[in-house]
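Below is a filled-in request sheet from our internal design queue. Each sheet records the structural input a requester submitted and the sequence that came back. We keep these sheets so that new team members can see what a complete request looks like end to end.

REQUESTER: design group, bay 2
PRIORITY: normal
MODE: inverse folding
CHAIN LENGTH: 202
BACKBONE (tokenized):
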């Protein structure tokens, strides 16, 4: 790669068969929930990306977490099932009448958005936490033709305050996502990512 290409596209960190965009390491991010109130659950072009192996989990635990869902969400699942297919042909969570509101969303009395699945998980009623794509956000995962994966930063105007909060508090994306990255890819992967970060910053 020439220096111009490197400046244009940034550095790519490779750990095993996983490629990590440099801005996952260098960019700051920390969810600012009191500001956004979980609006990422109800705004978007489609539902959250799903892995095929997550579909049985969604169905198995549905009797537990569905009690927290809005009637509109339950009706959508009854009509279309536990997943949808977006315009790119990818598996995603169903949305209420195409509004962008995830069917698995719940609201408190003040109108704050939460994931019904995750609320049940934290209450000890469900072993499935939530779709990994939600847990890893703002990272978006792309599957590569060679069987590997690419981890890229997704920039969304809704998360403007999260980027600002991360910068104020000195929290980088990979640091904010320590738990989901370690869970999804393993402790050794995360340690290697930290080592790469030390090299980049050093």
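RETURNED SEQUENCE:
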């Amino acid at each position: 790669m020439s220096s111009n290409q490197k400046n244009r596209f940034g550095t790519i960190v490779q750990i095993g068969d996983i490629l990590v965009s440099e801005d996952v390491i260098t960019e700051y991010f920390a969810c600012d929930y009191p500001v956004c109130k979980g609006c990422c659950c109800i705004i978007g072009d489609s539902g959250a990306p799903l892995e095929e192996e997550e579909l049985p989990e969604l169905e198995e635990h549905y009797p537990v977490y569905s009690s927290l869902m809005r009637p509109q969400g339950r009706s959508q699942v009854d009509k279309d099932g536990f997943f949808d297919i977006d315009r790119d042909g990818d598996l995603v969570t169903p949305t209420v009448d195409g509004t962008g509101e995830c069917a698995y969303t719940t609201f408190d009395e003040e109108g704050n958005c939460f994931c019904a699945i995750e609320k049940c998980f934290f209450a000890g009623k469900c072993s499935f936490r939530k779709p990994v794509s939600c847990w890893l956000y703002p990272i978006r995962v792309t599957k590569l033709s060679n069987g590997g994966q690419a981890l890229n930063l997704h920039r969304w105007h809704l998360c403007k305050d999260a980027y600002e909060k991360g910068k104020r508090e000195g929290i980088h994306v990979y640091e904010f996502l320590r738990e989901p990255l370690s869970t999804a890819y393993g402790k050794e992967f995360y340690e290697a990512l930290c080592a790469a970060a030390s090299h980049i910053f050093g």
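SHEET NOTES:
- The radius of gyration is 18 Å.
- DSSP finds twelve helices and eight strands in the chain.
FILED BY: M.R.
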